[in-house]
From TrEMBL:
Family: Belongs to the methyltransferase superfamily.
Organism of derivation: Orchesella cincta
GO biological process, one term: methylation
GO MF, one annotated term: methyltransferase activity
Assigned keywords, A-Z: Methyltransferase, Multifunctional enzyme, Transferase
InterPro entries in UniProt: Lys/N-term_MeTrsfase_sf, Methyltranfer_dom, SAM-dependent_MTases_sf
Record-given protein name: Methyltransferase-like protein 13
Domain Methyltransferase per the UniProt entry, residue ranges: 50-166
Amino acid sequence: MDLLPKTSEEFTKEEYWNEFFRKRKEVPFEWYGEYLELAELLHKYITVKDKLLVVGCGNSKLGPELFRFGITNQTNIDISPVVINQMKQSYPDVEFRIADVCNLEFEDSTFSAVLDKGTFDALCPAPTKSSNSTDSSVEEGHSSDLMLREISRVVGSRGRLLCVSLLQPHVASRLLSHFYSLGWMIRVHRCLDAETKTEERNTENTFVFPVFMIVFTKISLPGGMKPLLEASSMTNNKFTRFDNLDELLLYIKEQQNFAIRNRMVIWFHRRPCPAGLSSWIYSFGGSAFNEGSEIP
């Protein structure tokens, strides 16, 4: 079943997602991990008192599972009427709406928490081989830019955006730069449980990339004060603080490079490089391997 788009622009089209979910039917498609693998972090930052918006919900069970565990004041949105109708039938007690994250109809500061799992990754334009892979610039009015503006608008003071992402360099630069410029606190977690379980379920021998959860907190800072930048350790709950955004972006890239090198040795030692892997490696800022070549 061919579900991949021919171009990245198709990710922004209602028609693509309608066809995607017609083919998937009611089989959940979980980008970057399922509820149980993300639950510890989700419940650390989303409480039963929050008013939650889940953007680009698709047919993920994330919203319904949070609802089941007490986070009932939530709204799930997606651009596809097909999937929204499916989810309404499957979970009649949970609120689902057809809506475009790039043009939200909610008032300012409506929500205390917003959750995105893979939507910004899908909308953010990938770099071309003639451009810098970390370039965060997009044309005025691009869907990824509009998405960030709308989320910034509907989150209230001290509210949070939880974004689950692969944080490819062009995504990380665009995403983190936007909220850093607004003075929001930024905290980065590595989702190791999600990576491990994805590898265990990986029946097609596809490459599993590092998964992150970035927590952005809307704070009004005194004049001249820099936003707080933190990343959690992979081995404990301690946090490393960074003096500037470049240091945090470098830390993320080092985490990715280390994980990718290790997994390439484990999964592809003396095997042909799978079709499409070289372009993915390139998107992370690494050297592109020739498809069909052997990994030493």
